[in-house]
Design a protein that fits this description.
single chain; 282 residues; 2 domains; 36% strand
């Protein structure tokens, strides 16, 4: 999204429930949930508008996402995250009215339940409609653990036959866009007509990179992890900016430097990009 979600470890049991909801299970430490845990991300937004992929309007900013508190609720564990925005620049001179940082939520609320993480869109309490959706299995999670190649989650065919926001674990260490020493899972989802999302996730760290791109009328949102403070220790990251696979040959005309093969290798020119699309996509 930009959803600005953070994958976290499931760490607490559900207290006595008002509803017949199963107990919170305990997963491996995919990410700590201690208050004070902090992630610094670099964000970039590109909007093609009438100028297309060759000359998009660009905005960049950073966020500091800090766990402020966690508490047990009948549905699972509620994690509250404060989001601070800074270093906002618009190198292409966008108007103030187009300021993307005004759309960044200043607080995130996440629910850890049954080995999955749900984005509550800033709500501090679970309302009855969402609680009923959880009970019916109609609330789509952002992440589920443990991750394995081929795993999938978020499928709710009764409420979304198009299966938007269904996540697939595509690969483990399948490209150069993750941790240099450690595991990186590459996740993929459709987020609506023409909009695709790619996420690189590091166990014990969280979201490393995310690219959400609309193919057709071009726009995209990116974020990349710069540093994380876990258990009081800060670690900096120097990740290779992610390349994503082009969806049609027209994207190769001006955007071949922007895209790459599924294994992360770059194209040598528009022709090699178009040939790759012809073999693998179209």
């Amino acid at each position: 999204m930009s959803r600005c979600v953070i994958a976290l470890v499931l760490a607490a049991a559900v207290v006595a429930a008002r509803l017949p909801i199963s107990a919170q299970s305990v997963s491996p430490p995919w990410y700590p949930t201690q208050p004070g845990t902090r992630w610094i991300y670099q964000h970039e937004s590109r909007d093609g508008g009438n100028r297309g992929i060759a000359h998009p309007a660009i905005e960049r900013w950073k966020t500091a996402e800090t766990i402020s508190s966690t508490r047990a609720i009948p549905e699972g564990t509620l994690v509250l995250i404060r989001v601070d925005v800074f270093n906002h620049v618009r190198p292409t001179g966008q108007l103030t009215a187009m300021d993307r940082t005004t759309q960044v939520p200043r607080e995130q609320s996440l629910l850890l339940r049954n080995d999955c993480l749900y984005d509550l869109q800033g709500d501090h309490e679970i309302g009855l409609p969402y609680r009923e959706a959880l009970l019916r299995g109609h609330a789509a999670p952002e992440f589920c653990f443990p991750m394995t190649v081929g795993a999938t989650w978020g499928r709710v065919p009764e409420t979304d036959p198009a299966e938007n926001d269904v996540w697939y674990v595509k690969a483990l260490n399948g490209d150069p866009f993750g941790l240099e020493h450690g595991q990186t899972f590459h996740l993929f989802a459709h987020e609506g007509s023409g909009t695709l999302a790619d996420v690189w996730f590091g166990p014990g760290v969280g979201v490393l990179q995310e690219v959400v791109e609309h193919h057709g009328t071009y726009w995209e949102d990116r974020r990349q992890l710069l540093s994380a403070t876990i258990d009081g220790t800060m670690q900096t990251y120097h990740l290779h900016p992610a390349l994503i696979v082009p969806r049609n040959q027209s994207e190769c005309v001006y955007g071949w430097k922007h895209f790459g093969r599924a294994n992360g290798t770059a194209f040598s020119g528009a022709a090699s990009c178009a040939a790759y699309v012809a073999r693998t996509v179209e």
